[in-house]
Every structure is written in C-alpha cells, then in structure tokens.
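Lab notebook, bench 4. We co-purified these components, and the gel suggests they stay together. Before we commit to crystallization screens, I want a quick structural picture of the whole thing.
Request: model the full complex, all chains together.
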Amino acid sequence: MDTLTDLFLIFFGAAIINNFVLHSFVGVCPFLGVSTRTDSALGMGMAVTFVMGVATTASWALTRTLLRPGAPLVAWGWDLAGFEGAAPDLSVLSYIIYIFVIAGSVQFVEMYVRKLFPALHKSFGIFLPLITTNCAILFACLLVMKELQGPGPLWGLHHSLALSLGGGLGFTLAIVLMAGLREELEFCDVPKPLKGTGIALLVAGILAMAFMGFAGVDQGIADAISSAGGTR
Amino acid sequence: MHNSLHYVSEARAVIFLAIFAGVALSMVEATLGPRIAENVRRQTYDRIPELVPGASSTSTQEISLQPDVGSVNAIYAACDESGTLTGWVLRGQEQGYSGPIVLLVGVDPQASRITGLFVLQQTETPGLGALITRDSFLEQFSGLPANTPIQMMKHATQPGQVQAVSGATISSVAVADAVNRTLSEFRNLLEKTDSRDHMLEQLPSQGKDV
Amino acid sequence: MSDETPRAGTVFWNGILPENPVYRSLLGMCPTLAVTNNLNSAMTMAAATTFVLVASNLMISLIRSWLRPHLRILVFTLTIATFVTIVDKLLAAYMFSMSQQLGPYIPLIIVNCLIVSRCEACASRQPVSTALLDGLGMGAGFALALASIATIRELLGSGTLFGLAVLPESWPGWGIMVLPPGAFLTLGALLGLTNWIRERRTAS
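Here is the predicted assembly.
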C-alpha cells in the first residue's frame, strides 16, 4: 500500500501540485509558443509526454547502473580490470549523458511513432524536433537523478515513470488550458504593448494562482488511500 | 581507409571536445569533489552540537541502518570528545505543503526526551510555511518527551502541545508528524535487542550505557 | 548577420539593450522566472549563465574552422554541457547553500536557448575577440533583465533587497510576488512596459 501511495504522491505532485510549467517554470518556451490553438497544444503536450517517458527511463537506467556513487556496473568493471581501491564516481558526467539521452530519445520516439502510429505522427510529429531543447525533459531527468544520487531509498523504474507521466500530463493540461484561454483572448481588446506574449504571461500568472489551490490535496488523498488500504 | 580517415577528420571538433570534456571534468571532480562532499557532510554534522548538548561533531558517527526502517533516513550516534554517547540524532522526512520536509531530531541516549530539532530541507511557502525554520517554532520541541506523540495545536495550552506557525498549519503538522514517526520507529529499534545491539556495536568502545 | 567583423562597442552594447535576450528575443525564460524571487539567486544565476556563455563562445570561436553543418548542434551541446557541469561543481564547492537554493536550475542552463543561439549566430562565425564581447554583452543584458524582475519581486514580496531590509517592518509583504504566479505577472507587466516604451520612442 505504501508503494501505491508513494507512486500516487509522485504522479499527482508532478502533474498538479508542482506542475512543471506553472510551478517549476520548465517548458515555458513551448508553453508560450505553441499554446495559441488547442489542437496544436494537445499535440505538443503528447509529444512532450512521450519523449519524457522514454528519456527518463533511459536516464534512470543509466544513472542507476553507472552514474552514481557506488554504481554497480562501474564497480564490476573496475574489479574486472583489476584496479585497486574504490571505483570512481562517474556522476560528474551526468549532465552530458542526459542531454544526449534526450536528443536520442527524440530521434527514437520520432522514428517509432512515424512507423507504428502514423496517425499520431500526423498530429504531433512536427513538434518532436523542438523538444530537444525543452527544459521540461531535462528537469524530469534531474529530478530522477536527485533521488538516485542523494541519500534515502533509491527510486525504482515505477517511481520515475510515475514522475514522467505526471509531469508530461500536467504539462499537457497546462498548455491545453492556456490554448483555450488564448483562443478566447483573440476576441478581446488587449492593449497593444501586451499583445502576444505579455498577456499570455499575465494569464499564466492567474492560472498558476489557480493551481496553487491544489496544495495539500495530494496529502489528503494519500491519507485516504492508506487508511482505506491499511497501515501508514 | 581513406573514407574512415575522412570521417575522423570531419569529426575533429567532436573528438577534440570529448577529450577536453574528459580531462576538464576529471580535473574538476578530483579538485572539487572532496570539497563538495565535505559541504554535504557539514550540513548535518555542524548541527550536532546544537541538537545534542555536549556532543562534538568530530566524534559523532553515522550508524548504518538495517534495511527497511521506514521513515528514519539516517541515525547518528552523537558522542562527546571522550567518545561517550551523549545522544542520538535522527534524520526523518515527511511530505509538507509543497514538497518533502527533511529534519534532524536530537534525543538523549535513552530516547526519552527530545534535545533539539533542525529543519535540513524544505520547499514550503516563503513567509508562511517556511517559518517552520525559525528558532521560535523549533525551540518548543526541546525537552518534550519522546515517548508520546506531539500534538500540533493552533493554540497550545498544555505541556506536550506545540504552537503551530500561524497560517501554516499543513507545514507545522508535517513537522510534528515527521518527529512523531521518526521517534516511534527509533524507539522500536532501541527496544528490540538485535537491532539495538547492531547499533551499539558500531559505537566507539567506551560509554555505551543505554 | 553579416560576416564582416562589427565594432567592439556595438557588439557589447547589442546584448544589453537593442537585442536584450529576455525582453526582445524572449530567450531563457525558465531561469528568468524561477530564480528571480530574490536578488542574490538572480545575480548568481546571471553570473553562472554569463560564465557558460563566455566560455562556450570562446571555445566555439576557437574551433569554428572545424565545425561541420550536420555536427554543429552536437558540438554546441557538448561544449555547453561541459561548462555547465564545471560551473555547477564550482557553486557546490564554494557557495553550497546558494547551490542548494538554485537547485536544478543551474544544470538547466544547458538548455537555455540563449547560449545555443549565440553560439550559432555569433561564435561559429566570428573571431575570438568578437565572440568574447558578444558573450559578455549578452550576459550583461541577461543580468540586467533578471535584476529588473528580481528587484520588483523581492522588494514587493519581502521588503528586502539582497536580503537586507529596505522597506519598513510595516510593509505587509506581497507573498504572491515571491511565489510562482508573481513571476509570470511581473514578467508580463515588465514586457508590456518595455514594449510600450519602445512604441513611444519609435513613434516620436
């Protein structure tokens, strides 16, 4: 029951409470750039979610086995080569590896979506190359890194998937909401200096305020789940 | 042969940068790595003297935990300069308003009284929940018994109750929950003979009078 | 961008006002919003970004004759990631509490569009001295933009500047300014203001 509660907290936290765009400020460029129409916003959100899932899985695997202090593969290779002393800590290479993992994930997702789900590719394929410099994906990888390199229990694959799904879906939610609002704004009399990005930012601020109202909700639901399920 | 050489020369920039990165980063890791590790260590160890009066940070050592001890992340045996056990410091964690709150609780050697409390990490609302880091809030915990759950109240009237930070109920309750859970789990560890022996074995030789 | 080398002063000044990375090109939004709730973090972030920008510009300019079109982005990314790792470790070693406060936003400098776009537009074509000045100018412009937002947010939100109390105790402290919505609102308002000023100047 504890694991389920943990997973729920991670998912809900990343999606709503600490929404990637409206709370953690990552993915703001595509958020402002692609949120002018709801269908392109949905496409962008889906693309981000897919790539985030693939990229965090790959970086979770690499970090867990190679890029943390006391990583098993490094220790094994070190012993195999017959070196003395403790195996080196490769975590300094983390950022470089992640950024290439992300670029690779974008390629990978694009290839497979084009082959296996052509209809999906039609709807969000064009956004994929834009995602390589999307902070949100790197941010998700960094959150997973923090859990794997710091003190405390190591995250399993299910934890990092919960995070990336939550983050991606939360991003999608925010960008689609924003697109709906901006479509309405086109019929409003916006002062000239604020047209475009200015008013979008002000609207985003109000949206962020709305999302702040969710704070504490995850704890309440988590308590309800665990008291229904057993011990906590 | 000509083709492979051509590819290598095309990729000159990448190869050069890869070598540069390798050299630069290993130098950085070698020179700065120990310093960073020390910074991380001091974050906790510098607090030991305030959390357990009489303890010194140099004689304190971390006790390795048996697996699955729930909310207690780390246990430190706080010893004074002569190596006598003067108390324990526990690191525990609880979900607060906008993220996990990690704190350090100091208790006496028998884990009967709290001797100090310090918030290591929090991402609560500045000006509201973040006020749980203030001394005026944390001092209330010193001297409270460690064997009964602490109650967080809006208006603390009886001993054993702690006054919450006004406007930050969730954060304050999270602190109380973290303290209560960490202490009850630690007391369980002390009461069971095998886990208790496992912990005491790791102490320096003198003064294991628990 | 023309290939003849522009004058040094023009290059430097370009990044500060005419092509200010935040207010004109809307680059580097993520750190702009995230770390501007107080001036200390904002200035540390600006310094770190400038370091990476200048170092990357220098490196790319040095090896610009080796660049190949299809490997460009790879080269830029590798350079930037290396320097960001260096600056991250430096901060963790010498300014530990600030590094904890800034958290994941320092590594996010890697994906700050500002740096890649400067490498592409300037450093890959210009000699080292121009690239250096461009980096410094853009960095200064970025710092200016961050400072403008951070000043407003910290002053109105906590009544302090650089952590020192400026406004009297009686100032209630607009909490919203320090929180995420305040970032969006402040940047939106300032963007509107700068646009308005520019309209007025071109009109007159």
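The radius of gyration of chain B is 23 Å. Worth comparing against the SEC data before the next meeting. Helices of chain B lie at 2-10, 12-45, 48-51, 135-138, 169-191, 193-201.
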